[in-house]
Amino acid sequence: MAHAPGRPIDVHTWSTPNGWKIPIMLEECGLPYRVVPVNIGRGDQMAPDFLAISPNNKIPAIVDPDGPDGQPITVFESGAILQYLSRKTGCLSPADERARVAVEEWLMWQVAGFGPMLGQAHHFRIYAQEKIPYAIERFTTEAQRLYRVLDGQLAGRDYVAGALSIADIAILPWAKYHEKQGVDLAGLPHVRAWLDRMLARPAVQRGFSAI
Fold this sequence. Notes:
Pfam families: GST_C, GST_N_2
Mean pLDDT: 96
Shape: globular
Protein name: Glutathione S-transferase N-terminal domain-containing protein
Domain GST C-terminal: 96-211
Distance between the termini: 26 Å
Low-confidence stretches: none
Number of helices: 8
Domain GST N-terminal: 6-93
Number of strands: 4
């Protein structure tokens, strides 16, 4: 659904899988935005002004000057932001209730499992100063299981819930870094094809380049 551009939305974010979701969504929906960098490496997320819009001190968060009833609104948590933007614009979320339930199921699958488990795999495989075999095996194994679930869902579908949706936008930035999670896509042909399809989208490319 086309949406008339308003004033730019401020996107407080950084170059992480969760952080990329929102610029990609905004690019897909054609909404104007400004990136406000939150350098999590130097602790910007702990600053009082960021805490005021993101009480959990996590990126991303947005400030939309044209919120409900024309009043500004702040939104934190990437899944909540994606849902808000889809309601605001009618973009990437179906009107049909059954179809919308499918989208929301896979969005929740990402925010509750796919992202957190892959984040732990990233941490223990790459960033942890102490290499703990149990933790590496636990989270790598779970990452591989989750990718098998995703591959099964994508069998016979171009996108996770049928049509392109906020579920795909949520999953994509994590799946892009499958190698860091110890996941080989050679045995996951549906994920591989979906990932190539998503990464070829101009709006996706612009979103990744925005930060």
